[in-house]
């Protein structure tokens, strides 16, 4: 396979080649059933085994802490922005949000449609170029939860440490960095992620939550928007995105083969280190957007001296086989998304291209 692009897409994003090839091998005839996994009943034993395996594999990678359940939902992380307040932000309560950037703001917007919110910490005054200080959050007695975005995909910031919220459940949108490193699930009431960045293809949203939280849905909520519906039915109340769940299971197997989360973290640090070093060693030709201690290992954002030069960078990079290096339309600049599945060699090639570009335009 020599025609694979250097894929730095932000999402949907690169998947491990091994996973794609394995899926290809069993695409038409899934393990002797005479049909694709996409063509079989989600109530049959074959699919259900895959579904349950994906959930238990995910918990196992996180150390199998007791009292947590995995849900496979639809509607993306964006639907979770609404479902979280719909289920937990009941009358008389308020919900705390850590205002760290574009995705946090989208979550806040939805919560405000449902109930009372407060900003627990913010880095808005720093234009979100660092993560907010969450060292000592002051939480009101009626706080339903605190919501944090572990990695801001657009700005390129990432939390290194999570706040201690005591008995108030901490909920994290981990869409763009779930399973990029080990983390202590027990710190969280709930974490969730759209799969299309670090877990698999689009179409499934993974929720991992404390079982008791998943029993709290207010009685007036429509069936499909209630966590208890999905928890009580093992995410099989309605037809799940079966192919996406199958792919998530395959990606999880691949993560195990990389040495689990410790192995993945080591690789991610090497990858991000290589790229940030190239930026920092360019004598100001490339400028990292984010403060040192807040830099993301998943989304590396950087700028050139002018928008014109950035346009040229995107154009020439595309001609050289690189995909997805244009920054998000809302912030401009350049961004290399280097999720788990992006190979070290892609970053090595990018760093070489950057050096070459600087020599011809610097
Ligand atoms: C991509 C992304 C989302 C949106 O995910 P959808 O599945 O498209 O709804 C939310 N939060 C973060 C941090 C993201 O990176």
3D architecture notes:
This protein has 362 residues and is α/β, with parallel strands linked by helices. It is 35% helix and 17% strand. Helix 4 (102-114) links the parallel strand 3 and strand 4. The longest helix has 21 residues, at 260-280. The radius of gyration is 21 Å and the shape is globular. The two termini are 34 Å apart. The structure holds pyridoxal-5'-phosphate. The site of pyridoxal-5'-phosphate has 12 residues, from helix 3.
Largest sheet: 7 strands, mixed
- Total beta strand runs: 14
**What is bound: which ligands?**
pyridoxal-5'-phosphate
Indicate how many domains the architecture comprises. Answer: 2
Uncertain ranges? none
The CATH topology of the largest domain: Aspartate Aminotransferase, domain 2
Put simply, the count of helices is 9
Overall shape: globular
How much β-strand is present in the residues?
15-25%
Order of helices and strands: EHHEHEHEEEEEEEHHHEEHEEH
Secondary-structure class:
alpha/beta
Determine the fraction of residues in helical runs and give it as a percent range. Answer: 25-40%
State the end-to-end distance. Answer: 34 Å
Give the C-level CATH assignment of the largest domain.
Alpha Beta
In short:
The modification N6-(pyridoxal phosphate)lysine is found at residue 197. It contains nine helices and 14 strands.
List keywords for this structure.
Aspartate Aminotransferase, domain 1; single chain; 17% strand; alpha/beta; Aspartate Aminotransferase, domain 2; 362 residues; 7-stranded mixed β-sheet; globular; 3-stranded antiparallel β-sheet; binds pyridoxal-5'-phosphate; 2 domains
